[in-house]
Write a structure and sequence with these properties.
Elements (H helix, E strand, L loop, with lengths): L8 E3 L4 E7 L2 E13 L2 E4 L2 E4 L3 E8 L2 H9 L1
Antiparallel strand pairs: 1-3, 2-3, 3-6, 4-5
């Protein structure tokens, strides 16, 4: 099951790149990384961090090449 999510976070470790062969077609590319997302809650003083969460993120296909350049 896939979930669409937009957030800004910090990559926790070196991303893992994989390519899966598909016979005579170009291989399917996948980039796997762990990202920490903060949970800022508005308060009288601005924002207060109420704990965040880690998410395992997988990026597939042509987006992988563009994202590898951005992450390094």
């Amino acid at each position: 099951m896939s979930t669409y999510f937009i957030g800004t976070g910090n990559v926790g470790a070196e991303p893992e790149f994989k390519a899966f062969p598909q016979g005579n077609e170009a291989p399917r590319k996948m980039l796997r990384l762990n990202v920490r997302f903060d949970n800022p809650i508005p308060s009288k003083e601005g924002y207060q961090d109420r704990g965040g969460f880690w998410a395992a993120v997988e990026i597939w296909h042509q987006d992988v090449t563009n994202n590898v350049k951005l992450i390094h």
